Amino acid sequence: MKKRLSFLFFSLVLHFILSPGPGSIHAQTAIPLGTFGAGGSGDGEFSDILAVAIDSANGVVYVTDQTNHRVQAFDLDGSFLFKWGSSGTADGQMNRPAGIAFSPSTGKVYVLEQFGRRVQRFNRFGTFESKFGSSGSSPGQFSLPFGMALNDRTGDLYVADTSNSRIQRFGRDGDFIGLWGTGGSGPGQFLTPLGLAVHPQTGQVFVADQDNHRVQRFNASGGFETEFGALGSEPGNLNSPAGLAIDSFGRIYIADQANNRIQRLRADGSFDFAFGSAGSGVSQFSFPIGIAIGPGNTLYIIDRGNERVSRWRVVDPVPTLNAIGRTRFKTVSARTVLKGTTANATALSVKVGKGAPKPIANVDRWGVPVRLKPGVNMVSFTATGPGGNSAPLRYRITRR
Known about the structure:
Blueprint: E1 14-17, E2 27-36, E3 49-55, E4 60-65, E5 70-75, E6 80-84, E7 97-103, E8 108-113, E9 118-123, E10 128-132, E11 148-151, E12 156-161, E13 166-170, E14 176-180, E15 193-198, E16 205-209, E17 214-218, E18 224-228, E19 241-246, E20 252-256, E21 261-265, E22 271-275, E23 288-294, E24 298-303, E25 308-315, E26 320-324, E27 328-331, E28 335-343, E29 347-352, E30 358-359, E31 365-371, E32 375-384, E33 390-399
Parallel strand pairs: 27-33
Antiparallel strand pairs: 1-2, 2-25, 3-4, 4-5, 5-6, 7-8, 8-9, 9-10, 11-12, 12-13, 13-14, 15-16, 16-17, 17-18, 19-20, 20-21, 21-22, 23-24, 24-25, 26-28, 28-31, 29-30, 29-32, 32-33
């Protein structure tokens, strides 16, 4: 097996410091952890690599190896584990597999065949279980489908029926539920829909609308909600977006293919940060097309033109709290105002004694009036960063 692993050196750590936004100063670090794979047909080699799904509990990375007509499985570090599939139309065979999804609750792997125009379901070791779909434009049929995403809470499976310019929704066992979309550039229309992702909390469906150079967001039933992106290379612009992934904070990772980068957007669609450039180095991409999030917020990115999987970790900044004045003091007053500043935070709260935390609207620079009881008063502030990490600031105030 030919295999290429690229290891982390400090000189390859990429830093992206962004302009301050309301309530926070974002500063992320995108760290390339290495790559695995190369062109070929042997174990661990790829021929037109397209999509990735992750079984985090068992530490397995599944990759669709399209023109080798198979799925390959690796451990989280990229070591080859096993494979299944061969060219054909029989159960368990494949005709250019494209999208892939994994169900953590059932342990099932769903594989979408672009030219086979069907979805096959396997157990997590690649044993065939069932199938659905056929060629056509009627409900439940496909024309060169590409992307797929699973809502594991409901069991709903969403398929980008690309050449029919629509999204189809199925139950966990392949029962047709509904569809939406037509060809075009208006809200809810598509020109080559590719990647899909489901918000882990809300069930909203995100669609990478490749030739409209945008991402559209829908409710779980296909009702249009909003869109973001436009053709270009500036932050927030897109050029042929493909794979999508959404983290537990609702932030959207986009494989921005023709810009050879990954962009992360906030939950509202505003630009957060980006990393990557064109090339074959460990921190570069050649038409990245698929993306999935693994344990420890590790990103697995399908680097299609380089025939490899690229592993990255995004480290969000730790928020800081700074008091203006002392944090331990005595006073005879029944009231005081505590002042301070916060950096790298998206939320700030204050808790007085054993009371419930209360949010503070002005996160960057704050002044909070506090009523003091006789004796010792404990006041705690907590700042929360964009990645969910937090930092405390505690006051001990004695009222005499």
